Amino acid sequence: MTEDQSIDQIIGQAVQRLKEQQAEARKKDQELRVERDEVQKQKSELDTLEQRLREKEDAQRQKESAIEQRANELKRREASYQEKAQQIESRNAELAKLETAARAALGSAEAREKDAADRLSQLTSQESEISQKRQKLLDREEMLKKSEEETQRTLEQITARRDALIERERALAEEELSVRQDRERVAGDARKLLDRQKEILTRGAVAAAPVAAKPSHEEAEEGPALSEDEMMCPNCKTVISKDALMCYACGQKIREEEVEEAQEAEEAVSEEDEIPCPNCKTMVSKDALMCYACGVNIKEALAKAQSGDADKPVTEAKKPQIFVKKIVKKKAI
After folding, report:
1. Taking the mean position of all CA atoms in its chain, how far away is CA 2?
2. Which own/partner contact pairs does 278-283 have at CB distance under 8 Å and 24+ positions apart?
3. DSSP letter for each residue of 200-230
4. Where is the domain boundary, 165, 187, 203?
5. Which among 40, 42, 98, 236 is least buried, having the fewest CB atoms inside 10 angstroms?
6. pLDDT for 197-239, tens place per residue?
7. Are residues 243 and 135 in the same domain?
8. Containing H/E element for 49?
9. pTM higher than 0.85 for the full model?
10. What are 82-123's pLDDT values in tens digits?
């Protein structure tokens, strides 16, 4: 009983640990999914920023090409208008203004390039952070795989113990069946012996009838002589033992109270040692963890039956048969 209780406790603790590990794994999986979604979102934002930077760089390049074209045009104009000094001076002033504007544009372009470089450095740092987070996610997945493997090994151990318990219950059931068969065999032998003794007594009575002297009227009224261990059946006047519980000839109960007490004691012993299975009603040992016939867990089934089926009538277990040995004595002539 103590070993079964310890096994139940170990199984309950293992199941509880499995449930806690499953809950923790689910929680970690949810956190990993949230982190993945955030990383994807940041990556999409970085892609949009990079696209915008590229578009700005293209626009700057176009502006630079336009400025170069204008500078070339100015050079051609200087070459063509060298003869006209006044016009060249005025145009030189204009060119100076254009150059200052171009320089200002170039300064702004350089500032934009610097800003773009800073943003690229930020992008590289963010990519390194993303790679670190990915590594952490891979480490967590490895830990989850290891915990799943440990859980699988624990489940296999529990299954092996359950199979061993089932085999043990089956062996006990086979032993109980063999004991019942032995009882039935002994009862059959007792019946055959009783029939043979009856036949022998009948033959002896028939053979002794012509030789025996006729009893007197007083002796007939008083009956045959009885020893200290014998008595007469109150129903059919057959001589039986004083210790007999019932008459072997007519079946009259001699000591009904003693028979009832013996039956109650036998039922109490059987009820203490065996209980009916809540599922298939097969009599199993009181300490059994599961039924050897249907394989149901007896404790869980009993708990469900007590909680859910409290209003339903309880099916009575089949009472074991009590064999009463008949004591054969000679019948009064």
Report:
1. 23
2. 278/302, 278/304, 278/305, 281/315, 281/317, 281/318, 283/317, 283/318
3. HHHHHHHHHTTTSPPPPHHHHHH-S---TTE
4. 165
5. 40
6. 788 878 766 655 544 444 444 444 444 556 677 788 888 888 8
7. no
8. helix 2-80
9. no
10. 777 777 787 788 888 988 999 999 988 899 888 888 989 889
User: Both 125 and 245 in a single domain?
Assistant: no
| Number of domain units in the chain | 2
Whether residue 71 is predicted with pLDDT greater than 50 in this model: the reply is: yes
Start-to-end Cα distance in the chain: 59
Inter-CA distances, 158 with 18, 106, 150, Å: 12, 77, 12
Look at residue 185 and tell me if it is in a domain: no
Q: What's the CA angle centered on 135, arms 130 and 136, to 5 degrees?
A: 95
* 8 and 153 inside one domain: yes
Please tell me whether residues 147 and 283 are part of one structural domain.
Answer: no
- CA distance linking residue 225 with residue 120, whole number of Å: 129
Asked if residue 5 lies in contact with residue 287, where contact means CB atoms within 8 angstroms, the answer is no
Structural domain boundaries enclosing 82:
2-165
CA distance 48 to 200: 115
